Amino acid sequence: MSVTIISVGxxxxxxxxxxxxxxxxxxHQFIVVDTDKEQLExxxxxxxxxxxxKKFGRGKVKSxxxxxxxxxxxxxxxxxxxxxxxxxxxxxxxAPLISLNAILRSKFVCNVFSMPYKFEGPAKNDLAYxxxxxxxxxxxxxxxxxxxxxxxxENLMMDEMNKPLVETMSNAxxxxxxxxxxxxxxxxxxxxxxxxxxxxxxxxxxxxxxxxLQITETERKHLFDDLA
Length: 228
Ligand SMILES: Nc1nc2c(ncn2[C@@H]2O[C@H](COP(=O)(O)OP(=O)(O)OP(=O)(O)O)[C@@H](O)[C@H]2O)c(=O)[nH]1
Ligand SMILES: [Mg+2]
Known about the structure:
The protein is built from nine helices and seven strands. The chain has helices at about 10-20, 35-45, 70-75, 90-105, 120-135, 165-175, 180, 185-190, 215-225, and strands spanning about 5-10, 30-35, 50, 80-85, 110-115, 140-145, 205-210. Helix 4 (about 90-105) runs parallel beside helix 5 and helix 5 (about 120-135) runs antiparallel to helix 9 (about 215-225). The relative contact order is 0.14.
């Protein structure tokens, strides 16, 4: 297996399965985690491994909680793709912890996530924005989709909401490796987003390379705790 794809929460599962269907990582291990038992049982059919996590509650995620997700990282590949849709409780809390745990194990971490629609309200959006910082400081590379931008894409069906994100990944990875992408600057990365997913009025897709290259383990934990 060359990469491990970990989906967190239900939207994360949708993103991960769309990536898998697109054949972007032909050799992969697929791990599904969720706090929703029924949903997990259903989604587990498509996974190599599934893990039920405890519901998180109101507390903040902190770096000292990274060991809570050890089970999701044991026996995984050197490259981890963490898929989630920020805004819900599961992905917002557990995806940053999984990415932190992985990057502290010196794995290459690629975070793939969406941001919620504005109409979903400030509570979800604040939660998502907070987690956005954590996903930035725990990933060597991030692929992001702002769901609000979807309305500007013509002829997109209801069940194709991850298409811009997945097609961008597919396009970027036909000519470059994940590691190469992680070292590119914003302008180089923007050129790899298909034109139809670069709407004029607002941003839909964004890729960001290694924002915190070469920081130490201790610095990364501090940063994570400061941003949480
Ligand atoms: N792009 C995209 N966004 C999604 C998808 N499903 C849900 N979302 C968005 O993601 C947000 C979080 O939803 P879920 O993924 O269901 O949340 P969760 O991580 O399972 O967390 P819980 O609240 O514990 O269920 C929603 O508010 C939507 O904005 C999806 O398939 N694709
Ligand atoms: Mg859920």
